[in-house]
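Working notes for the structural subgroup meeting. M.R. asked for a predicted model of this chain before we commit to crystallization trials. I am recording the input and output together here so anyone reviewing the notebook later can reproduce the run.

Input as submitted:
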Amino acid sequence: MTEKILTLHPQGKKGVNISRSKYDSMKREILDALGKGELTHDELTDAVEERLNGVFDGSIPWYMECTKLDLEARGTIERVEGPRHARYRVRRA
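Returned structure, recorded in token form:
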């Protein structure tokens, strides 16, 4: 049986149960991409897709969104409103 994680949502909405291994893969790629600097949602999605395309089983954008929301809710990353688009970054301690 596959280990699951119930994701959190930054607005308190109901999370989803996803595979722990898929969550961990997404988390690693999101944090690595944001470790290089702030990214818009589209830039983050593109960066994660580029790295996982062909090696990830499932919808990369869907799993990325679930994991990104969970990381926001846990305070690991943060959304910063910009003049045109919101940007995401690793939260500073």
